[in-house]
Amino acid sequence: MGLLSALKKLITGEGQEIPKSPPKPEEKPVAQPVAEVVEKPAEKPGDVKIEQKVEVTKEEKPVAEKITAGHVHLSGCTGCLVSLADNYEGLFKLLDDYVDWVYDLTLADVRHVPEMDVAFVEGSVCLNQDLAVEELRETRKKSKVVVALGGCACYGNVTRFGRGGQWNQPAHEAYVPIGDVIDVDLYIPGCAPTPQQILHVAVMAYLLLKGTDEQKELATSYLKPLMDLAKRGTEACGCDLMYDVINQSLCMGCGLCAASCPVRAIEMVYGKPQIDTSLCIKCGACYAQCPRSFLNLDVINEFEGISELVAAAMATGGE
User: Fold this and answer.
1) Angle at which helices 195-210 and 89-97 cross, to 10°
2) Is residue 22 part of a domain?
3) Are 83 and 77 in contact (CB under 8 A)?
4) Are 121 and 132 in contact (CB under 8 A)?
5) How many domains does the chain have?
6) What DSSP character marks residue 102?
7) Dist CA 198 CA 194 (whole Å)
8) Dist CA 83 CA 168 (whole Å)
9) Per the domain annotation, does 280 fall within a domain?
């Protein structure tokens, strides 16, 4: 072999075996670290779902069924309805558990007087207004118990001043208590009556119609003086207060008669009422407000039981 041939083989590698590279060791798979999955907090409080177990306590009521009641508004100032609404939570309790309020020009969207258990009638009735007289008679026909609510409905009160000539209704000149047109079962006197008295009468009417025998007995004891007041008639004046209270040495000088008189016909002199009969309009406000004018021993003897009965009826559930 010549020198050129030897160089050619050396350069091109012709005729030489190329050494094989040693095999690479097998690569074992490397375990990749697993990322921890962290739950993101909810972005909004509303996204969080919380399961709560709420214990439902069933309220015990004196009786099961409700009674139906309503408010009929005649010629009055709406002060008695305001007094009813002033019971606040007590009114909600009454409507939730005991009474379905089915008629009220202010609080209920009902056009005609429906049948109901108890009708609270506010205001006197104008004899010149045929619609008012008709509505009052319809109320008596469709109600089991009619309550004269406030001084105007019971005795006429300041509406007795009505002589006609008002700019909006000049022909309206004759106003009378509702008892002069229909039979009334019960009076709630006052101008306006206290919220508590209206509430208590509503509860007692409920117990009288739907309660147990014991509850009916206590309710009758509470309502009897107010029923007797209705039976007495639609007129009362300072003279009646003089005969029935002052002359019987029952006056304790509280001054409620003077405070309730709408024409200031009564003045307290040396702790006793002095009545100016020339100013008296015989509205009955003083007589109805006097705590001793229609004194009844049934209420006094049962006062504790009646108070407990009202408190139990108005107590909220779970307390």
Assistant:
1) 10
2) no
3) no
4) no
5) 1
6) E
7) 7
8) 27
9) no
Answer whether residue 283 is part of any domain: no
Report the sign of the C-alpha dihedral through residues 216, 217, 221, 227, in that order: positive
Rounded-to-integer distance, Cα 61 and Cα 77, Å: 35
Amino acid at 263: V
The whole-model pTM stands at 0.72
Residues of the chain predicted below pLDDT 70 = 1-64, 296-298, 316-319
Looking up residue 184, the CATH number of its domain turns out to be 3.40.50.700
- What is the span of the domain harbouring residue 113? 67-234+295-314
For every residue of 243-305, DSSP letters joined together read IIIITTT------HHHHH-TT--EEEETTEEEE-TTT---B-HHHHH-TTTT--HHHHHTHHH
> What tokens appear for 7 in the block?
């160089």
Q: Is residue 108 part of a domain?
A: yes
pLDDT per residue as tens digits for the range 292-301: 887 766 677 7
